[in-house]
Every structure is written in C-alpha cells, then in structure tokens.
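Archive entry: two folds, one per protein. Generate the first.
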Amino acid sequence: MRIGLVGTGRIGASHAAAIAARPEVTELLLADADRDRARDVAGRVGAHVAGDIATLLSPGAVDGLVITAATAAHPELILSGVRAGIPVFCEKPVAPDVPGTVEVLREVEKSGVQVHIGFMRRFDAGYTRARQALRDGELGELHRVHAVTCDAAPPPAAYIPTSGGIFRDCHVHDFDILRWVTGREVTDVYAYGANRGASYFAEAGDVDTTAAVLRMDDGTMVTLQGSRYNGGGYDVRMELAGSRGTIAVGLDERAPLLSAEEGVDFPTGQPWQEFWSRFTPAYEAEIGAFTRMVADGGESPCTVADALEAVLVADAADKSMREGRPVQVAEVRPQL
C-alpha cells in the first residue's frame, strides 16, 4: 500500500511516523510547500519526498491520501483527492467555516469516495470502553455527562487569530466524542467564556476559559469545562452517570489531579503535559483504521457529515457565549 501525505508540520510529522510504522504501508510519499521540511521528516521516518501535490494525485501514484496541511488548504485538498478517486484522511476541521464544510460534504457524498476526518478520541480505549458500557446497559439510563478539556499551556499567540476560537478549535473534540459515545444529538447550548491569561486571546476576540451546559435530544444534561491554562497538566476527561453506575474516561495514573482527602495519593504518575503523548495509541489506531478502509473499502469511521455536526455545536456554543443566551443548534444549521 502506498500512502501520500500532504503537510509535514508538527502534526504531519507525527502522523508520518505512525503511517510509516504500519506493516501494510510499503511506501510513504510526502509533499509540502517547504521541501526542506519534507526532506527532514522523510529522513526521520524512512519516507520519500514527492515532487509536488499533483504528483501524489496522478493515476496510480498512491492508494490513500493523508492531509495534515494548514486548515485553509483542507477543502481543496480533500476534493482533489476525491476527484482523483483516492480515499482521504484529513485532520479536523474539514474547512475553516460551515459553508466550506457543506460544499465539501455535498461533493464527497456525490462521489462515493470515502473520507475519514481525524477525530482521534473515537479511537481512545477509555472513550471506547465508556461507549460500550452505555450500550451494554452497564450504566443504566444515562442522566448526565461532564466533559473537560484543558491544555497545560496555551498555543502561541500567532495561532489564535486563525484558530476559529476555543469552541471550534478545542472543544469541537468534546462535541464529536459526546455524539459518538452517547449516540445522541445536541439540541441547545448555553456557553460562557472568560479571559484569565494572556491578552492575546481577548485581542483576537477569543477566550481562554470556558464553561457550558448542553442538552441532548433525549433530555440528558451535559456540562463542559475548558481552559488554555491548566497548571496541573493536560486534562481531558469525560464522566457519564446513569441510573446504575458512573464511568470516567481519563481517570488514570497520569491524570493531572490532586486529592484533598487524607491518605489518598492517587494518581501517582507524572501528569500528562500535551495532547500527542496522551493520545498516541488513539492516533496510531486512527491511522490503522484509515489504512484498513483503504484496503477493504469499508465505511469511514468519522465522515464529513459527522464533522459538520460537531462544528455546528461549536458554532452554537460560540454564538451563545457572544450573545449571552441559550442557542439551539437548529439556529446555526445550514440548508443542505
């Protein structure tokens, strides 16, 4: 199997290493506007540098295309792969905005070519276990969910103006995994935001601290918290409480928590500090799912339509925060 990858920045280099380690991948071809960077990554992972993106998309060049380029390039790269009849994996988001996402969705659905959008939490063992526990009836009837996503340190200032805001950039992962684990849809959200750190968040019209209440279509209540400044470490968790029991994702030896109870020293491990190390097994499993999809033509584990639903919740949350009122997802849903 020959895989092409476009974009060899930090996330692209990490994905390249995961792809190169797959036994079914016989050749990995890299393309980047910065050819020196592509050569550096290729040397580290044992890949080859393609002449350009057009080379990757030429007939018979690759069996699958992985896109880890800048967000603005995602739509055209996805559609270029689809038009060439090549299965595509693309890091989230599909596009910088909802109209762009809808445009991609329409063409992808007409083409019949499989596109896998990279929401890696769907491949994390903890979230998978929680999803199965809910489906097996282990938790009983679901009553409430609590989700947390907190970075140990904020992104660089230059990134924030083009990030789309914390709900679209960061919490979109919470919104996707909430749908995937519960099997339900979000109907409305009331979100808050605050600036508790560097001024560059406020200067870009963004916030660095969040809280929200969401309601699912079956009445389940969801609370959400987030921060770009979590001094304890990188904290990503989900708690699902039902009529028979409660299960927690991310409550492991490296959870960045400190118990105030006497005699309790859990967790005792070194706290997580960033996303890649926390989710390395999930990223690797995600790439494995993509290569299996390429090999056998199976269904996408996370479609463009799935990605659109998560972004719509993020848009509703952002609108709610800015307008100071609850917002129904239907208010931001486009006509398809």
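Generate the second and append.
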Amino acid sequence: MAVNRRNFLLGTAAAAAQAGVAAALPVGAKSEGAEQAGKRKPNIILYLSDQFRWDFVGANGLNGSTNTPNLDALAAHGKNFTHAVTNQPVCAPARSVLMTGRYATETNVWHNGPALTTELPTLAGELRKAGYTSNLIGKWHLAPAKESDGGGPGYVKPEYRGGFLDLWEGANALEHTTHPYEGTIYDGDGKAITFKDQYRVDFITDRAERFLRQKQEKPFFLFVSQLEPHQQNDWKRMVGPKGSAERFINAAVPADLREQPGDWHQQLPDYYGACESIDASVGRLRKVLEEEGMADNTIFAFISDHGCHFMTRNEEYKRSTHNSSVRIPLIIQGPGFEGAQQIPELFGIINVAPTLLDAVGVKVPESMKGKSILPLLNDAKAREAWPNKELIQISESMTGRTIRTKEWTYCVADPTGLRAATSNNYHEYQMYDQRNDPHELMNLAGRKEYRAKAAELREELKKLIVASGEPEPEIVEAKLYP
C-alpha cells in the first residue's frame, strides 16, 4: 500500500494529537482547525460525465447490467445523493447553474450558445480568491458559441473561462472539435493538443493524470469534464470503446424506456460501454490520488449535468421534465464526506457550488441562491426542515417550468411553442405521481381527481419562479385529460 499523507502525518505523536482534535470538530471547524495547524485545505476534483443517467450507477441498485465498480466504491466510502436533479436539463445551462449557484435565466445561459455572464461569482473564481488554483480539462460549453462573438467551438479566451485561470486544456464544444478516437483540445494560450487512435475518455483521463502527478504548490480545484456518454453530434449516436457495444448487446433496458418509442434499441449498448469507460476513468484518477499521497486530503465529486431519455419524451435526449432527463448522479467522498451514507433528500445542481465552498471553509457569496447541503449529512433537524422541492427550467424543446418534489412532478409550458428565456403565459402540461408512477407513464394533468393537488403545486411553482427572479406568470388549468 502506498504511503499517503495521513499515514505519514500519523507517524508523529504531535500530528496524531492534531488529527484527534480536528476529528472531534464539526465540518467547518475541522477545516479551520486544520488550517491553523498548518495543514493545507482539501483539494477538490469535480468530475462531470455528460448525460450520465442516475440509474446507471450500480450503487443505486436499479440496473443489473451496468458495470461501475469504481463509482460503487466511491459511494461505499462517501455520500451518495440519491435524489439529485438538474435545474436545467441541457448542457450549457446546467453547467452555468453548477458553476454559479444561480438559475440559468440569471446566468445568461438559458439555452446552448450564449456566454456565461462575467458579473456573477463562480465556484472556480471564489476558490482562486481563497488560495486555490482552478484548473479545467475537457468540455466547457460556457463561452460564446459563435466566432463572430469572440468564441467558437475550440479555444476559449481567458475572459470566458469562468475563473479557470490556471491549467486550461479544453474546448468550448468538445463534441465539435473531437471524435471518439481523434481530435483537438486547446491549452491556455490556444496551442492545439491533439490525440488519435485513443478513446476520448482515456485521452482526457491521461491529461488529468498528468496534472495530478505534478507537484502542487497550492490546494487545487480540478474540473474534469468528459463528453461521454453524450452522443457524438455529427454522427447522431453514442459511441462506446471498441468492442464494448458487443458486450452490452443484451443489457437491461430501464423500465422508463421499455414502453416508449425512441432510439434506445440502437443506442443502449454503446451507452453502456461509454458509462463503463467513465467508471474506469474515475478508478484511474482515484488510484493516482492514492499513489501521490493526496487521497485523504481531496474531495472527489462525481456528477452529471443531466440524464438521457433516448428520444422517448421528445425529439432528442434531454430537455424534458422527466426523471430520465432531470435525475443525475452525485457522489462525494473526501474530507467532510467520509463514511457510506445515502442522502435521500431532493435537491438541485444549484446547490453544488455552495456545498463545495462550504466544505473547504470558503465563504459562499451572497449572490448564490443555492444552499450548502452539508447539514443534511449529520443534522436530523436540518433534514426534516429541507424543502424537498426544486425549480426546473426547460428551454429549447419548449419554454416550460417545473416544480419537482419527492412525490410529484408538475410541469407547465407556453402553449404557443415559444422558445424564449421566459414566458408570462403557461398552461398545465404534465403531472406525474412519483410514488405510484416512478417511470412516468401516466400523465395526470387535467384529471379531475388531482385538481386540488395540481392547484397546490401551481401556487408552489409560482413562488419558485418569482424566487428565481422571474415575474409571476399566469398558469392556465388543463382543460382536457389526455
């Protein structure tokens, strides 16, 4: 077994005494105490896998075909947040929420294409202010999409990097500068870094390992942003590593897909293979942390920006209010997140940045509307008081708003087909009973037996919309039961 930082520190009586004192303190005090004792703040790795379904993590117990031993091990030693949802189920808007702790309508990225506003504090920027380096490897998707606006799919100018001003090895739209076995990303100066005859996940992982093997003078924040298992856009399909699709040809079909038309029949084998490669990548990086003596002082968070419904709910893969679109994996292990625990409370991706800042003792900016979820780990009263409701904004496929609770999904949409940042006129569109219909096969919108519950959810949704900074809209009751 490699000698890690903890084993080395515990080799002296003085260090052991310090560790004992720190362990007896609550999370925030522990971080402060460690700093006073000369210990560096914990590193943070935020590992994002694009379009990774929550039920494809083996530890969540819903998929016997998925092969994720490394994610399962992460959950077995850390906190598995089993009811995390995205607040905007499409790539760039979700990332903007993740980085700012604000809603997509407040970040300027309410749909794919616009640049992230420079006016809001970001997770990377706040960590840099606190003495961290902020580093990105992989996909960004928060710079302007058009070259005429100073952006494009490839190189990202420093002003559009959201505070990632140390190591930068990425592309704004990785799906447009690379293919599964070849392509280009760009360093901070715009120099091309190319790969060929290597699976894209492995290439990104190699770059992350290269960073982790280097001597780190400061605590670091590393954002590893993979494209897989997202489809290769110009090929219009998912692509797993060579040979993986054949191995998964008869893999399990999730229950929410089986009764629905879509392209899951063709795509699932490659999707399984891509998810398996992501898991192997996580395992590699965790092993590097052990070998470099950083495992015990690094927070490792695995997350996705949204799920995937394989064209069963609309004409592509997300952008809907359904669990297959909005439920995401979130597993965090490391200082403050030790010990296996499932957290069943419902919360949105908007809470991730405040949580990570809180976990390392960095003040959460007042601008962030998300809340730290650390109290849910050890405080029964905090769990009882948690609201268990989230606002989900839908764009591009339609202009819609959803309230998601543990028990219900209630969605409204602009009936004109408007595709805009917001609307003042919504009609009831979808309503699902999560307890009796978790696969969302029966839309209850407009059914008279649920009229009272729909009215209650409508008023709660209006409150969330106003809290997000939008004006209170009119919501018209559904007249017909489909």
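Annotation attached to the second fold: The mean pLDDT is 92. The CA atoms of residues 42 and 451 lie 50 Å apart.
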